[in-house]
Every structure is written in C-alpha cells, then in structure tokens.
Write a structure and sequence with these properties.
37% of the residues lie in helices and 13% in strands. With 988 residues, it is of the alpha/beta class. A 7-stranded mixed β-sheet has the order 2-8-7-6-5-3-4, with helices on both faces. The two termini are 47 Å apart.
C-alpha cells in the first residue's frame, strides 16, 4: 500500500520531503549552486561561521526512546495538589479528538468556507460555556486564568470610559497576583490590593469598602473570586451588589467545573443584576496538568437585549452564526475590528491567537459529559472532601482553618506542626499532601490546603501519614463539611445534552473533514509558516510522565520537566547567538511584551525615562498593540512609525530623522527580520548600531525565523531581544489558531531582567532560580510546557545540521515557486523585483489584469480576497490576502513539500490567473466546492449571534468536492470544473 504524503513527511530526514534530486533541480532552476548561496546577499559578519554547536540528530526510534527516558525522570505520586489547577480524569474523547489532524494542524479560520470544522468546534465551546456560566458571549482567546483576570480589568477600564483603578483581593491565587503586577507595570491601570479577613479567610469587606471610597473617582472594577485561594466560598452576592451600587464593573473569577448541576450558581445570578465580566481557567475540564500549560483562559461578557456594548471592549475572537451566499447555515469570526491585525495600537489586546485547540477539546469533553457527567464529577469531589474533613480533623492538632466559611472543593487545615514537616514526611512515602498556604494571610498560622478531584487519590495513605505525625485522634472533635448555602446553589441545570463518546468522536472526525491541513499539501499562508507538524511531537507531549506532573510538584519529582526546560534554553541560546532565554512566554505576542517590558526595566534601572518606541509601518499588528499594552500610548509616551523604502525595508533617512527628533526618549525599535515582504533587512546591523548609540535597545520580531535559523547570528546582528514562534518555525501545531508559544532570547544587557524561572544544572540536578532584577512573571507556572516538549522533540530530530537545512529549504522552496510565477504575476513591493526573497514573497496582478477586472465590474481593492477564494477551489488554503500589501497575495510554501507538490501548486496558481483573464466572473461566485459558499460576513457582523441552546449537534454541510479529492485531480480538470460551476451572483 502506498504511503500517504503525511506518512512520507513523518519519516523523511528533518521532515523535508524533497529528495536530493529534487533539491538539486530546484537549486538549478533558480541558478544557485547550494544552500549557502541562498544567504550570499547577507553580510558575512552576521552569519554563523559553520555548524552550530549542537548535538547530532536522532533517528526516529532513538528519538522516542530518548523522550521516554526523560519523561521517566519525573515522579507521579498520590497527589492532593490542585491549588487552582484541578487534576481531573480526562474524558475518553480527549485522546481521539487530539488525533484528528485536520483540527490540530489547521490555522486560524481566516477562510471560513474551508474552515467550518474549526469554527463549529469553537461554536460548540462557546455555546456550552454560555449554558454553563449564564454569559452569552464567551471566547477562547486568552492564555490562562491570570491573563484573563488582567484582560478583564482592562476591559472594565474601557467599559468605564477610562477609569483606571481595580480593587484586587488577596484571596486570589498568588501566581495570578504576580502575573497581574507584572502586566500592569508601566500602564495607567492601578491595582489596589484588598486583604483577607483573618477570621473568615474571605475578602475583608470593610477594607474593600474603604478602598472603594478612597478611589471612587477612578474606580473601574471590583475583582473577586467565587471560590478563593483557600477553597472558600466568597459572598458573591454582596460583592456584586457593591459593584452595582458604586456603578463599577463586577469581574468574577470562576471555576466552570463548580457550576455543574448541584453546584454553585452562575455569575449571571450573582446579586441583583449579575456580574459584568467573567474570567477563569477551563483547561482542567479536558486536560491533565501538563506541568501547568497550555491553559485555557475563560473570558465572558454579557450580550443580551439589555447589554450589547460590553463585547466591543472584550479582547480576543468570537465566532458567530452566519449564512453563505446560498443561504446555508454556517459560522464565521465576527467583531474582528477590535483586534490587533486591524486596529493595531488601538486594539483591545495584543492577543492574536486563540487557545483554539484546547477549547476544541474542552467542547468535545463537555458534550461527552453533559449535565449528568459534570454533576457526577462534582458530587465525587464533594464526597471526598467531606470524608477528608471528617477523618483529618479527628487528629489532635488538626482543625479547619476557617470553620465559619464554606469549603467547596478544596480544604484548608490549620496544623499545630509546621506544614513543611508534614509535606516532607508525606513526600518521602510518595504522597503530595497539598500546598503550604501559610503565607497567604496574616496571622502566622500553619495552613495546609488539600485539593480533591475524581482521579485516583489514596485518602487512606494520607490518613496514615497524619496518624504518624499527629498521633492521637478525637472522634468527637471531628468537623463535618458544611452544606452549600441555598443562596449559592445553581437554580437550574445548564442544559448540556450528554452524548456517547463514540458519537462525539465521530462528529469531530466529520468536523475535521471540513478543514484543510498541511498534512495533505502546500498550505501557502504567508507569514504563518504552515509547515508539517510531526506526529511524534504530539506523541511525546502525551507521555504520562509529562502530562500528569503538577506544576507545583516538588522539583525533585519534576526533574524530567526541568531537564527539558534547561535543554531547550541551551539550544535556543545557540540557535540565536544570544546570552540567555526565557521559556515562559505563552505566544509570540506575549513574547513581544516580555521583550519590551525588559527594555523598560533596563532603562528604569539606569535612571532613564524613555517613552518612545519605533516600529515600521509594515510590522505585524501585534507590535503596535504590544507597545500600547506596555504603556507607550499613554502618560506622554509615543509609538512612532518608521517608513519603508521601495523594498519594504526600513528607510534609513526616516530612521535618522526620528533619532534626531526623539533621541534620548527612544526606548527601542521593533523590527521584523526578514520583513513582512519576505526581504532580509540588510541594514539591520546598521540600524541596531544607531539605536544603541542613542541608548536604546533592539527588538527583533522573530516570526520569520524559519528563513534564517542556524544561518544568521542574532547577537552579531545587534539584537537585544527576539521571540521565536514555536507554532511557526518549531512545528507545534496551530490547532485552529492556538495555543501559540514563544521563546524569548536576550543579549547580555537584559539577562538580569528575565521573567519567570531560569533552570540551572547543579551536577545531575536541575534547579529553578529567578534573576535578581526579574520583571516578574507572565505565567503563574512554567509556561506552555507541553509545547516545549513538542519543540524539543523536533529539535532532537533536526540536530545541528537539520536546523540549517530546514531554513535553507524553506528559502529554496519560496524562491523556486516565485521563479515559476513571475511571468504571470507582478512581485510586490513594486520596484523590488531584484531583491532576493527569503521564505515568502508577495505577488499581485499585472495592471492589464486589473484593468480587465474593472472592465467587467470588479473593483481592484476586492481582487486579492476574491482570488484567495479560488485557491480553495484547487484544494489549497489561500495565501495571506491583502496584507501587508492591500493588493497582495503573500505565499509561503515552507520546507515540507516535494518538488512535484510545489510544481502542482505553481500550476494551480497559474491556472488561477488564467481564470481571471478568461472567466473573471468566477471571482464573484468562488469558492465553488467548499462545504459552504462565500460567507456573508457583513450580515453576520450586523446581526451578531454568539451562542444558542444546543438541543442537537449543529448540522454539517458536506464539501461539494473535498480538499483531499481536489489535491489528487489534475489542475486542468479542476479548471474545467470551476468554469462549469460558475454561477451568476446576485451582486458584486
């Protein structure tokens, strides 16, 4: 049986499908002798001198053995750790859904006609969470609970017309508080801490009212948890009503699991009017701890007849109901004018990804569990909690820390012995006996918190440990679990229908068939690096030795995880040529924020107030939004645009003028290299030298590292900070838009300011430490650890030679395809035809072709998006359309495909221009073979619907011809099919 293209890629050396003969032929076609010649236009003093000092590549089976050995270094014990990250038994649908490649490997659904699978998976998540929370608008864009709380505060400030103070209780988790403090540094937002009542363990209400009065004129929000850091139920009704009385926003931090039938009431029911914004963590609804990440930040606002505007202030992406041009029901992204790719520095957030695939898995798990399954989990947790309270408080010296407050799913005990002693004793016999929370409240008490789940937990072992430490028992002294107050209980079930595991799995397989995947062929989405995602990476990330490690486990138990983080730090130092690396950032956009905040800390440390950031006008939208989040758009700061020359490079004369104008105020410059036209910034080192002379720093957006990794020494280039998108260059799957991930490497200037933990090797032991001037934390734990596993697995398979070969092949593929298209299309930027492109290039129509389209009533500005739809008809995803050039099609073939596959793709692109010339009316009715026709996006944004009750699974529209079938057909046959399928549209 012939192997599929995906199977061939999986076992190809360095995952490069092209044979040596292919490579030689492609080099000959562009008149280049070898890979090194592809970089001959770059100054030699910024190129690495030969091979990287990294290990040789591992064979496929050796790779798997190595990862198993690393995972085995971790120790999984009898665990009562949770502390905001409950370890639930995964639904049986999780693993099978994770194996549906057309869902895991697809990109953000910018082409809705060929992405209905992803869109419907998101829709199911939105609708399920809406039923669970009572909030009509819930999205899946935020990284985790910490980020969601921060974004909730920012949204509340926007809703409150610029009021900037938020009251933050110290009964939130410490990790969340640290992330909040880090993110607001430099912004106009002010967080005012409110202490806990030492008697109740809940928010000190008197202190809260005092703080509210002191900040009345600027108060935007009161943030509060439904269940707090001690596992105690807060008085959400009183807190919500106080916010309403003060006319500020109530931001409720929730755990969606606790809203199951028989559990806590929804935030829509808090107080008289309900909360305004909800935030929280949802990844535990489907996934094991994964050493802390990726997470799934829950974010929601009201969207009803009474409240329509809050969603306009929300961050992230929403999916809405829509219809196609033939009236078929479908889904599409809506309200995107709030986002960074459109609004730049005025966006509601710099977030550009979704936690899309985590939301997909959670949505599937909620379908399999339904009301009944969720109720079973919560009931099991409550029963274990009740048993633990009764048995543990029977020991003398053990009592409820806050007997007058209500525990929900976690238990905080006060001990008459040091908590550290109890934890150490338990650890010695294989039990993780919870978390030491003694320092979370004043009073100097010894407080131990235990968390309960539906996973196997050996309470007998825990009781035995307590017996050996505390000895005597007093059965009459034992406490009991208080009933949940009637006023706190959910009034009615969410109404989530339960489906069998087989029904869910089969449905999600059908959803996958509505997408297109890089597994099957070229996915030319420029600036997104849609390369092949090796299956072995996902296999490694799914090893139980990695997935089941809690991020707060003792470091002795997490040596495999820490070893891997240390290794990946060292690899990226070598790959970038820079001094140090942080593994904490959760996406490229957050990597940018990390870098810019380090710039600010560096300047503050030197006693300098630098409030100007320079950014090329053609940069990714995240750059501008990041600068705003860092505070450059407020308090007198300024984001200054740099103009481009005819090649899209930074115009040196304009840079010189900006330096002369702003010199001592310049904090730094952000430059993408290669730039968004696919052209290397040949003056980068000169620019860096000029910025350094002014005292500023240099940030390189590393979104396009796939072109230069292993070849260009970023240290020699003058870079002070750079992020590497792991979901682009380093092959973690896009998952329908996320989770993303990033590594940030820095120069010696910034090492002292790195966020989160660095991992150092002490003999054979790996230990975390924080830099002395660290800017804080961007994640409450270790970052997206599961993605680090995927990335490291890829690196081991590449080795030092594979990294250089990967990048060179990406450049070769792009230049080879470009060479085949230049006779039929014009290159952009105009006037830069002779400039060597790197891994991507932009084409557009010739003026004669535009004139022809206009003569038949097609506007020039509509051409790129409509031509993009024709790519779908040939079985490909569209290139990036109308960005960064409004008339452009940005094509990035990547290194993953054979010469024959690239030839067929080029043939299809030539057929498209032939269609434009001979049958221009096809642009009005394209696409013709996708599950739905052209989606009426304007209508969907005019009459927005973000959720609805799901009495049945959404009906699926089958593709008229599947993408997989189209990739097997001759291009000329598809051409004929398109001509025959042309219909006269109602309007242009």
């Amino acid at each position: 049986m012939t192997a599929s293209p995906s199977e061939l890629r999986e076992h190809a050396r360095h995952y490069i499908s092209a044979s040596d003969a292919d490579i030689d032929a492609m080099l000959a076609a562009i008149d280049q002798p070898d890979f090194a010649s592809l970089y001959s236009h770059i100054e030699s003093d910024v190129l690495f001198d030969g091979a990287l000092s990294l290990p040789d590549e591992l064979g496929y089976e050796d790779l798997k053995e190595r990862l198993q050995e690393i995972a085995a270094k971790n120790r999984i014990g009898n665990s009562f750790l949770g502390d905001g990250l409950t370890d639930l038994e995964p639904s049986p649908v999780v693993a099978p859904v994770c194996d549906i490649r057309n869902l895991t490997t697809a990109y953000t659904p910018y082409q809705p006609e060929l992405r209905q699978g992803t869109l419907l998976a998101h829709w199911i998540y939105q609708c399920s969470m809406a039923r669970l929370t009572g909030f009509e608008a819930v999205n899946a864009s935020l990284y985790d609970r910490s980020t969601s709380i921060f974004e909730g505060v920012c949204a509340a400030s926007r809703m409150s017309r610029g009021k900037t103070v938020a009251l933050i209780p110290e009964t939130l988790y410490p990790g969340d508080l640290e992330v909040l403090d880090t993110l607001v540094e430099g912004m106009e937002i002010e967080l005012v801490r409110v202490p806990a009542d030492t008697a109740t363990g809940c928010i000190d209400f008197a202190a809260l009212k005092t703080a509210a009065a002191e900040h009345a004129d600027k108060l935007a929000a009161i943030v509060f948890p439904q269940v707090n850091t001690f596992g105690l139920l807060e008085d959400v009704d009183a807190l919500t009503d106080l916010a309403a009385e003060l006319k500020v926003k109530a931001v409720a931090v929730i755990d969606p699991l606790l809203l199951a039938p028989g559990g806590l009431k929804t935030p829509a029911e808090f107080g008289e009017k309900g909360a305004d914004i909800i935030v929280g963590e949802a990844h535990h609804l489907a996934l094991a701890p994964n050493f802390g990440g990726p997470g799934l930040g829950l974010f929601g606002v009201r969207f009803s007849a009474k409240e329509r505007n809050g969603v306009r202030s929300a961050p992230g992406r929403f999916i809405g109901k829509a219809r196609d041009c033939s009236g078929r029901d479908c889904r599409v992204g809506v309200l995107s004018t709030r986002e960074q790719h459109i609004r730049k520095d005025k966006a509601t957030s710099n977030i550009c990804s979704n936690q899309a695939f985590i939301a997909t898995i959670v949505g599937a798990a909620l379908l399999e569990r339904g009301d009944e399954g969720l109720a079973e989990i919560l009931s099991s947790v409550r029963m274990r909690l009740a048993d633990a309270i009764k048995r543990l408080t029977a020991f003398e010296g053990v009592e409820l820390a806050f007997p007058d407050s209500v525990s929900v799913n976690e238990l905080t005990l006060q001990l008459d012995k040091p908590v550290a002693e109890v934890l150490s004793h338990a650890h010695a016999v294989g039990t993780l006996a919870g978390a030491d929370v003694s320092e979370r409240i004043a009073g100097g008490r010894q407080l131990l918190k235990l968390s309960f789940s539906n996973r196997a937990q050996d309470l007998e072992a825990l009781v035995s440990i307590f017996q050996s430490i505390f000895g005597a028992t007093c059965e009459d002294c034992a406490a009991s679990l208080p009933e949940l107050p009637a006023s706190s209980i959910r009034s009615e079930a969410p109404g989530l229908k339960r489906y069998s595991a087989d029904e869910v799995i089969n449905y999600y397989k059908e959803l996958g068939e509505l997408n297109v995947s890089p597994d099957d062929g070229c996915y030319p989405l420029g600036s997104c690096t849609m390369k092949y995602n090796p299956k072995v990476n996902d296999w490694a990330a799914g090893l139980q030795g990695f997935t089941d490690v809690h991020p707060q486990a003792p470091i002795e138990d997490a040596q495999g995880c820490l070893y891997l983080l240390h290794e990946i730090q060292e690899w990226f130092k070598e790959i970038t040529g820079l001094a140090a690396v942080t593994t904490q950032p959760l996406a490229g956009a957050q990597g940018e924020l990390v870098g810019i905040k380090m710039f600010q800390a560096y300047h503050r440390d030197r006693g300098e107030n630098r409030d100007v950031i320079l950014i090329p006008r053609s940069a990714h939208g995240t750059n501008f939004a990041t600068a705003t989040m860092a505070g450059f758009a407020g308090k007198g700061g300024k984001i200054v645009y740099l103009e481009a020359d005819t090649a899209g490079r930074v115009l040196n004369e304009d840079l010189d003028q900006r330096i002369a104008e702003y010199g001592p105020r310049i904090a730094g410059v952000m430059i993408t290299n290669p730039n968004t036209s696919g052209i290397f910034e040949s003056s980068f080192k000169e620019i860096a030298d000029k910025i350094h002379e002014t005292g500023g720093l240099v940030y390189m957006d590393g979104a396009n590292m796939n072109a230069i990794a292993g070849w260009v020494d970023l240290g020699a280039l003058g870079v002070d900070a750079v992020h590497n998108n792991l979901h682009k260059t380093w092959t973690i799957p896009h998952g329908g838009g996320g989770p993303g991930d990033a590594m940030v490497a820095v120069s010696e200037r910034l090492v002292a300011y790195l966020p989160g933990y660095q991992i150092e090797k002490q003999g054979d032991f790996y230990r975390p430490y924080k830099e002395g001037k660290s800017i804080g934390s961007f994640h409450r734990h270790w970052g997206n650890f599961a993605h680090k596993v995927r990335c490291y697995t890829y690196l081991l398979r590449l080795g030092h030679e594979g990294i250089r070969r990967m990048s060179a092949m990406a450049v070769l593929s792009a230049r080879y395809v470009q060479q085949q298209l230049v006779d039929d299309y014009a290159l952009m930027p105009t006037g830069a035809d002779s400039e060597p492109r790197m891994h991507e290039f932009i084409v557009t129509l010739n003026e004669a072709d535009y004139a022809h389209l206009e003569s038949v009533g097609l506007r020039k500005t509509d051409s790129a998006p409509r031509i993009g739809k024709l790519f779908l008809d040939f079985g490909f995803h569209a290139p990036t359309v109308a960005w960064p050039e409004p008339l452009g099609l940005m094509i990035e073939p990547t290194e993953s495909y054979t010469k024959a596959e690239l030839d067929r793709f080029s043939e299809a692109v030539k057929a498209i221009i032939k269609l434009v010339k001979e049958h221009p009316q096809c642009l009005l009715s394209a696409p013709h073979f996708t599950p739905v026709g052209r989606v009426e996006e304007v209508e969907a944004n005019r009459d927005v619907c973000l959720s609805e009750a799901m009495d049945a699974l959404p009906t699926l529209n089958s593709p008229r011809v599947s993408s997989r079938e189209l990739t097997k057909l001759p291009v000329d046959e598809i051409y004929t099919m398109i001509v025959e399928a042309i219909v006269e549209p109602v309007s242009v």
